Amino acid sequence: MVKIKKENSTLEGWLWEASCKIRGEMDAPKYKDYILPIIFIKRLSDVFDDELDKLAEEYGDRAIADQLVNDDHSLVRFYIPEAARWAEIAIKNTGLGEALTDAVRFIA
Q1: Residue 31 maps to a domain
Q2: DSSP class of residue 24?
Q3: One GO BP annotation here (predicted)?
Q4: Residue 1 included in any domain
């Protein structure tokens, strides 16, 4: 029990240190404005991609599956517009705040 608690404490310390390095000079309260939408969009995109992969297996091609989903959003649990998908967000190196806001709006 003591060993597990110590390991959790060590892991927590490493994660905290890593997040501080990633955050850089940005204030911690402001950081959450970025990190929470990023986590949200990444998770939704992963689930959406999994569903597209299943459709691709069924129809034989990812492009066909993507086109079908674009035409009929009911084929998936929820539809993520292309501009709001993780692949699009991940390539942003400027204007991330605006891109995240737009992505969440597109999803909503």
Answers
A1: yes
A2: T
A3: methylation
A4: no
99, 72 contact by CB (below 8 A): no
Largest CA distance in the chain: 55
Q: What does the DSSP 8-state code read for residue 27?
A: -
Report the alpha-carbon distance of residue 19 to residue 23 in Å, rounded.
6
Alpha-carbon distance 90 to 96, whole Å?
A: 9
Phi, psi of 85 (to 5 degrees): -80, 155
User: Which tens digit of pLDDT belongs to each residue from 73-106?
Assistant: 999 998 999 999 999 888 888 888 888 889 989 9
Contacts of 34 (CB under 8 A, 6+ apart): 26, 96, 97, 100
- Structural domains counted in the chain: 1
The pTM for the full model equals 0.69
